[in-house]
Amino acid sequence: MAETRARHDALPHPVLFGPEGRPPYAGEAVQTPGYTAWDRARWLPEPSKSTYRSDFERDRARVLHSSSLRRLGAKTQVVAPDADDFARTRLTHSLEVAQIGRELGRSLGCDPDVVDTACLSHDLGHPPFGHNGEKALDAVSGDIGGFEGNAQTLRLLARLEQKKFFDDGVSAGLNLTRASLDAACKYPWRAEDAPLRADGTRSKKFGVYEDDLPVFRWFREGLTGTRTSMEAQVMDLADDVSYSVHDVEDGVVNAAFQLGWLRRDHHRERVIETTRQWYLPQTDPDEIDAALARLEATEVWVAQFDGSRRDLAAMKDMTSQLIGRFCTAAFDATRAVHGNEPLTRHNADVVVPAETETEIAAMKGIAAAYVMTSEQRQPMYARQRQILTELVELLEVTGPRYLEPMFAHDHAEAADDAARRRIVIDQVASLTDSTALEWHHTLVQGTEFRRVWI
User: How many angstroms separate the CA atoms of 39 and 179, rounded?
Assistant: First the structure.
């Protein structure tokens, strides 16, 4: 044995991560058809690198190793990260979205790493306390362009995360490729260009702040209107599919409700009305009722859940089967329209059947009815908004004193009060739920933040 090991050690070992001596099995990166050098270009050109990884694989790695992605592990998805061992966080949700999106995108011909990058990125801009925190930061930044999680995501990818800098000192953020930035842009428009809703008002969703327009215009060059890329559409659908079933799973397992309650008229009416108010305002209630009936008729529907190992397995099977149901319907409908060619960038659109859209919305409506709109949670929501509002107000008054070094540096270089306010918003948005509470306890209330350590 010792002689064999000695002979092995004497042999030259292949270098996997360098251009020289790479063994045959290391291979070359495979470029997915349908993408050009234009799609693989970076805002700040970079020197050529070894070819064992594609440009899009590098994009995914940059997001995966970003500090913003790590912070999502301590940010609220539906319930607070420390509320339950089972409940999903923004990070676990993002990983699940990436898994769904990667497989669906690959089956349609998209580069799986571009879709994966978009899915991992899609919630990076979320502040503490989820959408509730988003409302609070939007309220205190209305005079400087507001706050929107998707616009904050672009700001992180192209400015706040640290990877590359231009010669003049301007940050290029992670310096992702044009295709990946476009894929991560769910709402490719400014706030003032947001599409009109049925009631004539503009959507509050937008994807870029005014001072991030240079990179936005770079990766949207040559495109007109507000059309999203094929990869962004796959990411968007994967997000909808993921949280439609997983939020229901979390709610059932955490004893917030039982799916069997939908057999009772007042519960069913509550879910239908919540679905209409939140997701499908123009849809006839009977269509939502029919969608619920189709879901209840599936063999995997778990009407009653008792927490046993068998019921946990049944719940997992239900979520898996429903994800497959929704994705298969979209795959079949998209291929029926566009054929079997690779569908990439701006040469096609994801097609989701109307019945499938209603079923997804109905699942989201179940979670919204019993978790997000729960009367017991309203005082907590108000307190969360107060915490973030008071933090912003204090940090504005104290300037760079309490900001993290990188934000303090940005604050010192800011051109005016609006720019300084945006940096304060960047700082607060970067906090996790627990650090937001800690900062508020210590800085605003002036009390010791008591955390239990083992």
Answer: 5
Torsion-angle region of 306 (φ positive above 0: left; ψ -120 to 50: alpha; else: beta): alpha
Q: Is residue 204 part of a domain?
A: yes
Identify any residues that bridge with 89 across adjacent strands, giving them in sequence order. Answer: 76
Per-residue confidence band for 51, with pLDDT thresholds at 50, 70 and 90: confident
Q: Give the span between the Cα atoms of 63 and 125, in whole angstroms.
A: 13
Q: Name the average pLDDT for the chain.
A: 90
Task: Classify residue 162 as left (phi > 0), alpha (psi -120 to 50) or beta.
Answer: beta
Closest to 56 (Cα-Cα) out of 180, 184, 240, 190: 180
Number of structural domains in the chain = 3
Which pLDDT does position 454 carry in this prediction?
40
Q: What angle do CA 70, 435, 437 make, to 5 degrees?
A: 140
More confident residue, 338 or 83: 338
Show the tokens assigned to 149. Answer: 């999680």
Residues 411-429: what's their mean pLDDT? 96
Give the three-class secondary structure for 26. Answer: helix
What is the number of helices (H) and of strands (E) in the chain? 19, 0
**What range does the domain containing 422 cover?**
385-444
In a domain, 15, yes or no: no
Q: How far is CA 215 from CA 90, 157, 174, 419, in A?
A: 26, 10, 12, 18
Q: Do 127 and 149 form a contact (C-beta atoms < 8 A)?
A: yes
pLDDT digits (tens, 9 = 90+) for 138-174: 999 999 999 999 999 999 999 999 999 999 999 999 9
252 and 185 housed in the same domain? no
Residues 202 and 99 in one domain: yes
Residue type, 83: A
Q: Return the residue matching tokens 């995997």.
A: 300
The whole-angstrom separation of Cα 284 and Cα 269 is 13
Query: Which of the four pLDDT bands, split at 50, 70 and 90, describes residue 199?
Result: confident
Domain assignment of residue 239, yes or no? yes
Identify residue 189 by its one-letter amino acid code: W
Of 219, 246, 265, which residue is a domain's last? Answer: 219
| CA-CA-CA-CA dihedral for 110, 116, 117, 123, to nearest 10 | 120
pLDDT digits (tens, 9 = 90+) for 319-335: 999 999 999 999 999 99
State which of 330, 355, 377 marks the end of a domain: 377
